[in-house]
Amino acid sequence: MQLLIVHLGALGDMLLSRPSLLAIRRHFAQAEIDLLGYPHLLSLIRYEMQVRQIYNLEDVLFTLYTNANKAFWQRYDLIVFFARRLDPDWQKSLGRTEFIFIQTVPPPGIRRPVFAYQLEQLRKYGLKGQISFVPLALPLSKDTQREGFDLLIHPGSGSPSKNWPVSYFTEVIKAFSSFRLGLIVGPADKEVAKVLLARLQDNDVLRRPRLLQDLSLPALAQKMRNAHLFLGNDSGVTHLAAALNLPTFVIFGPTDPHRWRPWGKHVKIFAPNLACAPCEEKRRECTERQCLKAIKPKEVIETILTAIH
User: Fold this and answer.
1) Distance between CA atoms of 218 and 44, rounded to whole angstroms?
2) Closest Cα partner for 81 from 118, 48, 131, 32?
3) Residues 253-301 pLDDT 10s
């Protein structure tokens, strides 16, 4: 059987789909599976999904919105689409190829965890999945320098509106400055990291965090798997930490932790008790960010210390 899985989400979206993706792999145990999406993201699940090939969504040869690639689609016995909405043009380009559509995000008003919502849809097609957590399986690392971090911190996210104040992260780093700290800096985090590092220079910090900067996601995952603890915002990297079975501390502000909580066994969520939160997409219009400011560094520090002891 030839099976294609199309996933159009970002890192966090893809990792929240893992319960359903693993259910597909188990159900079609003998199938040859290809993936279509963003290769730098999908490469993370290539090993555990036993994937034959990954196709790049951004490659013009595999544009979803034209009929030019019917021959590509029709080589598959089944196509499974993971996306926020079903575009009628996709169905036209698929022709007679059998497909399953999984809506990745619940509609407004449905407060279900994203991973559970997707599994519920999959079960309607007779595929059984499980909510119980399965750590992300990675291939053995070729890196012989397998250093560990006591605490990894990721101060950024894909949206500045979800970021805990830099001054708060600074307080946490000061409190754990005697620990082996790692600071994760991705392409979208450079400005946040710049401000944070400047603040640390002005403070009496015993040991500054080591930068994990501009790593590929598989390389970052290999570094993260040896850490003891992780602290971050509602971001894709935080979902990766939870997927790797790290004790993960997550700062939620404007986004809904009931919907977007990471799929993991050791996840501690900090969320504000405010009437205006969560506000989801309205966060882009908010300049006050009271929901994030309401989560104080002292609470986070004490919770992490409790986990250590």
Assistant:
1) 6
2) 118
3) 999 999 999 999 999 999 998 888 888 766 666 777 899 999 999 999 9
Cα–Cα distance for residue pair 264/190, rounded to 1 Å: 27
In tens, the pLDDT along 98-144 reads 889 999 999 988 889 999 999 999 999 999 877 789 999 998 776 64
Class of domain 2-123: alpha beta
pLDDT recorded at residue 308: 86
Q: How far apart are CA 213 and CA 134, in angstroms?
A: 27
CB atoms within 10 A of CB 171: 17
Neighbours of 309 (CB within 10 A): 5
> At the topology level of CATH, where does 151-308 sit?
Rossmann fold (3.40.50)
Tokens in use for 126? Answer: 């007779």
Average pLDDT on 74-87 reads 90
Average pLDDT over residues 72-94: 84
DSSP assignment of 191-221 equals HHHHHHHHHHHTS--SSPPEEEES--HHHHH
- Unique residue bearing structure tokens 């079975």: 245
d(Cα 118, Cα 274) in Å, to the nearest integer? Answer: 29
* Equal CATH topology for 2-123 and 151-308: yes
Angle of helix 190-201 versus helix 166-175 axis, rounded to 10 = 50
Report d(CA 221, CA 3) in Å as an integer: 27
* Whether this model's pTM surpasses 0.70: yes
Sequence spans of domains, the chain: 2-123, 151-308
φ, ψ of residue 255 to 5 degrees: the values are -90, 155
